[in-house]
Amino acid sequence: MARYRGRFAPSPTGLLHEGSAVAALASWLDARAHGGTWLVRIEDVDTPRCVPGADLEILAQLERLGLRPDEPPQWQSQRGERYAQALARLQAAGLAYGCACSRKDIAQALAAAGQGSERHGELVYPGTCRPGRGGLGERAPRAWRLLTQAAGRISWQDRRLGAQQQALEAEVGDFVLKRADGLWAYQLAVVVDDAEQGISDVVRGEDLADNTPRQLFLQRCLGLPAPRYLHTPLVLAEDGQKLSKQNGARPLDLSDPAAALRRAASALGLPPLAPAKPLAETLAEAVAAWRGLMMPATFVFPSS
């Protein structure tokens, strides 16, 4: 196997909270348990949602937790040229096409076809502007989409969830690569960045597992290597919803960084870490416990 390179990729739409601290710790532990390299990437491609200064605050939070990247952090907002090059390759190969549809247009087309349901908050694109199916006509393109007609059923082996599969065209449709507002879509940016940074393993929350088929297909279209994936259990709020900035999750309490690490380790199902230890010793104990989770063919997290 190639040398291990992992990453934590927070979006600076707010500070780290208990849930994002769990994701950060899991990715760091996996890199350290493999004797590999751990990177931090600031995923600020969705600039309107980013909070000024949150990127530097997040890096400071990670530093206080003892989670230090092995290379300088990278910002997606500085990499637009690389994403444009990837889109141009897809366009030249006939795999990307312009789309003039608004969200209202898509909803109306789905309703007319007797469909119209949302999937994880997204409408399954009906292919209105696909070449050979009407196309743009006289309309100007608003966005660029990836043609998924040849995707088939995307299958992969998640290190924790096991065998996974998705019929990409039917369940997602032709997804956006560049948005109508001119911003780069997350799917394209993350695939380009993972490849250029040589990421061998992606460790992230289970809520992002649904993105994996799109990223695997994009990697195939661009001729890029696919990393291994491990999706960790989610931290839930009191109402049972995913703990997130969108539902008001409070910033991580770092008055006692070692205690914050112990809480994050507990959420990952690690055995209780010894209290009243220096931060470095707490992290070393957590790495040893993580190696214990790695022993089975897939990770075994205690059920919550």
From TrEMBL:
Motif 'HIGH' region, chain ranges: 10-20
Domain Glutamyl/glutaminyl-tRNA synthetase class Ib catalytic: 5-249
Entry's Gene Ontology BP terms: glutamyl-tRNA aminoacylation; tRNA modification
Keyword annotations from UniProtKB, A to Z: Aminoacyl-tRNA synthetase, ATP-binding, Ligase, Metal-binding, Nucleotide-binding, Protein biosynthesis, Zinc
Enzyme Commission identifier(s): 6.1.1.-
UniProt-annotated binding residues for ATP: K245
Binding-site list for L-glutamate: R7, F8, A9, P10, S11, E43, Y186, R204
Cofactor mode of binding and number, as noted: Binds 1 zinc ion per subunit.
A Pfam family per the record: tRNA-synt_1c
Keyword Ligase: yes
Residues bound to Zn(2+): C99, C101, Y125, C129
Sample GO molecular function, one term: zinc ion binding
InterPro entries linked: Glu-Q_tRNA(Asp)_Synthase, Glu/Gln-tRNA-synth, Glu/Gln-tRNA-synth_Ib_cat-dom, GluQ/Sye, Rossmann-like_a/b/a_fold
The organism's place on the tree of life at top rank: Bacteria
Motif ('KMSKS' region): 242-246
GO CC annotations on file: cytosol
UniProt cofactor(s): Zn(2+)
Aminoacyl-tRNA synthetase in keyword set: yes
Function: Catalyzes the tRNA-independent activation of glutamate in presence of ATP and the subsequent transfer of glutamate onto a tRNA(Asp). Glutamate is transferred on the 2-amino-5-(4,5-dihydroxy-2-cyclopenten-1-yl) moiety of the queuosine in the wobble position of the QUC anticodon.
Similarity comment: Belongs to the class-I aminoacyl-tRNA synthetase family. GluQ subfamily.
Protein name: Glutamyl-Q tRNA(Asp) synthetase
Organism the protein comes from: Roseateles asaccharophilus
